[in-house]
Amino acid sequence: MSDASTLRPVRASTIAQWDHQADVVVAGYGIAGVCAAIEAARAGAEVLILERTGGWGGAAAMAGGFIYLGGGTPLQRALGFEDTPENMETFLLAALGPGVDKAKIADYCRGSVEHYNWLVSCGVPFREAFWGEPGWEPPHDEGLMYSGGENAAPFNAIAKPAPRGHVPQFADKKIGRKSGGYMLMKPLAETAESLGVRVEYDLRITRLVVDDDERVVGVLARRYGTEVAIRAERGIVLATGSFAYHQQMIEGYAPRLIGRPAAAIEEHDGIGIRVAQALGADLAHMDATEVAFFGDPQLMARGILVNGRGQRFIAEDTYPGRIGQAALIQQENQAFLVIDEASYEAGLATETATPFFRQPPTWAAETVAELEHDMGLPTLALQATVDCYNLHAGDGIDPLLGKKPEWVRPLRGPLAAFDMRGCTAGFTLGGLRTDLDSRVLHVSGAPIAGLFAAGRCTSGLCAGGYVSGASLGDGSFYGRRAGIAAAKN
Fold this sequence. Notes:
Number of strands: 21
């Protein structure tokens, strides 16, 4: 996907002088990189992190901070929620497919409680409070929330619902600017640096370095136009993020995201994927994308979402990311929210963590027929949908899509509709294929000696579907595995 001559690995024998050297070299100081560095250092390795920006954090520090954990974490138990690794696995297999790495999901679920305890031991704080309202994230410092549609159709009939969105406590959060992700990264960065992990900032990796046996032994990087050579005695860990900001890769692998703002940071340009590809690394699920949907969950749960034909297509009380994927991928980005005046006012009266999603409606009318006409829908299309919905909503049920009874009531009186076309952004989920020890796999299926990876530059738990917290969850979990494996290499 780029000029091969600028990405092809170079021979160590051609390096006249190494500018830096360590046992384990980690490229990227986000969630995967910091966890890799901590574990490698604790395993006795000298660790060097290479970060292309001027500070730690990456996309993780700017995120809402959800870490998807379950199986009976202390936080779940303290708040009265029962969960098991098997129950968590059943849900994730249904929600993250098709084509998920079953071994990786089983491994993650079995290790989830231990991983929670590890994060706490590193100083990551979780408040024992549950936020149960629809929303993108808790508005305060609540530590637990449903973050993947576990309690909504169809998943609530597949596995016992349990909230698994664990959010680090941050009392003075500023949604969209500084949220729980900051309080995830801060204690981890402090832990890494207390272990003697060194950091070199403003270094962007460009190529891998291999010895005569094709083992990865270093990396080339650039700092302000100057090439820098870094030697890794035991292994290189790639933790460089997704390819959401590499236009050519988006066009080639995930074209549904063309023209949509990436819900990532500009440093996510796929460099880790591309330098590993140049060495023959295998890829997986490069077309998989998460889609953020810029709608207020409190309003969506109370109304109905219809497509360009005026038909409902998803249970409106589910995880908003699932709504975004359904709208963009299955409905050609044609989505409208229809809600009556009473439900609209009730939604506005609730507390929400996402007030910037609350925009005035696009259309308003006294009847469904008038609204249908103003929206440009075929005659009777929306009316038939509302009639069907209201017929069953009078009994408090939604047999078509399974919205929970607490959100089901007939739409009556004056109505409004929101034009949700174009209200999507996303980031990529595919990347390097890795094993359970975070070794990067060659297209032959064998591990590439000396090369490890974790985070969004890899294909992690998600093969198509998504749950909030999967990126920070598997990035931190398999970042740890990468650090341990590299240190022992």
